[in-house]
């Protein structure tokens, strides 16, 4: 996690500092550093995979319990070449995207509304806080009852999860705007529009982006629950199906796909963060060797 | 614009029972195009008074008239330069100066460039506040206020973070703008030389409760020289006033 952050946030900053102080070698230096940071993040996974493969090949471990990395990779290639994986992934991504879009959009909207007015906070926030604590698994049966086994119940379940992190964070971000800068906005006679676009949204942006990241994570979790509770396609279904036929390697492929896509979307938001928050002066960890 | 401060009182709640009287019956009439400096020990209510004049603090008793009109609230015609720079951290230098105005407007663009030149920040137009020193940031804040052509400019220790050279330069800039634009200036400072260098009238405040203890007319032509005998004489006079009110701290 922190590896990606260092690479994205510290990378360009380090590059700028370097460029100012010395002219030569800077490109190579930063490239070398980035590769080094990348390698550092790979040490642990590679080690674990090595031991895993070793144990699987030389001791008698049942394939149903723990297939070797090579076997998993093999069925991964199989799934790709038959086109099965992509078909499942497509529908999963679609569900997650629609659910996330709906939930995060509404969460942002209500977070901003409640952030702006204490009256709407008094009216809405207690209800939202109550709903927030209800777990997915508790409402899943209800959603199925109301909306059937189709896409709607799944999308809504994902949306429910994605709603709250961004709602809470947008609200916090807006309430956290420095009152000293509000005074400046009053002296400069900002219009309501400029108050929002020049002061409140930029000030709340770190929180909003954090909310988006947390929402994305929760959306993936919601997706798993939604697909496990009954569907005929999607990565979650693929896992369920493979488990029934004891194809543990495919279960692993599914889990890894979830992890990789989750990480990848998270990195995407981090890139967005690095772009939108480049004005921030951040602490990036204190290893002088970095 | 003239500024009239009529029997202004301001108290802050210290605890349930106890009130802290910060300003007690402050009266001052500032004529159009005057340059007033306010000097006084830390905590005597200088910033509080400026905020009241700016319209930012409405919880006072008494009244403030700007150009004969009752003050209704803050606005661009009462420019304010805060004790801290208060720049928007997410905006570059030029965008901080423009703030809600658009740099795509060629007239604004021209004025912003001109002001960047005046406050000597050429080359830093695209820098973010975190990349600036304290003094540079304060100069951006000054440019931001000047862009709006205020009738009254309120300055709360604006040059505190600056080195002597930049300080003198900006004092001259301020005098220049004052002469050209006829802005009424009210500047709070800790620096005796600065207040004599700039002011028509120098206001001395005493603490607990904050009151105006002395107003000294400085009838000396600009530009003033700090080595001038008259300058030194006024300095001596002000120091004597300070001693009288036992203000040396
Ligand atoms: N918001 C506030 N709440 C409570 N007390 C306050 C508040 N603002 C100022 N005070 C009190 O009012 C008094 C005057 O404060 P003020 O900031 O006006 O002083 P000052 O003359 O500007 O001092 P300095 O030269 O250090 O800036 C101080 O004793 C301070 O504790
Ligand atoms: Mg002050």
Offer a few descriptive terms.
heterodimer; A: 290 residues; mainly alpha; MetI-like fold; B: 249 residues; alpha/beta; Rossmann fold; 6-stranded mixed β-sheet; binds adenosine-5'-triphosphate; binds magnesium ion
pLDDT average of chain B, as an integer? 90
Quick one: CATH superfamily of the largest domain in chain A?
MetI-like
Secondary-structure arrangement, i.e. CATH architecture of the domain at 1-77 and 180-249 in chain B: 3-Layer(aba) Sandwich
List unreliable stretches of 5+ residues of chain A. 1-19
Helicity range of chain B: 25-40%
Q: Strand order, main sheet of chain B: write it out.
A: 6-7-8-3-9-10
CATH C-level name of the domain at 1-77 and 180-249 in chain B = Alpha Beta
Ligands: adenosine-5'-triphosphate, magnesium ion
Instruction: Give the overall form of chain A.
Output: flat
Main location (chain A): membrane
Transmembrane segments (chain A): 35-55, 93-118, 130-149, 155-174, 195-212, 218-239, 251-272
Membrane topology (chain A): Multi-pass membrane protein
Pfam family, one (chain A): BPD_transp_1
Structure explained in plain terms:
The complex is a heterodimer of chains A (290) and B (249). Chain A has 290 residues and is mainly α. Chain A has helices spanning 2-21, 26-58, 69-82, 84-116, 118-132, 136-147, 151-175, 179-187, 192-228, 235-244, 248-276. Chain A has 2 domains: 1-61; 72-276, MetI-like fold. In chain B, 33% of the residues lie in helices and 26% in strands. In chain B, strand 1 (3-13) and strand 2 (19-30) form a beta hairpin. The interface between A and B is medium-sized, with 20 and 23 residues. The complex binds adenosine-5'-triphosphate and magnesium ion. Magnesium ion (MG) is lined by residues 46-47, 83, 156 of chain B.
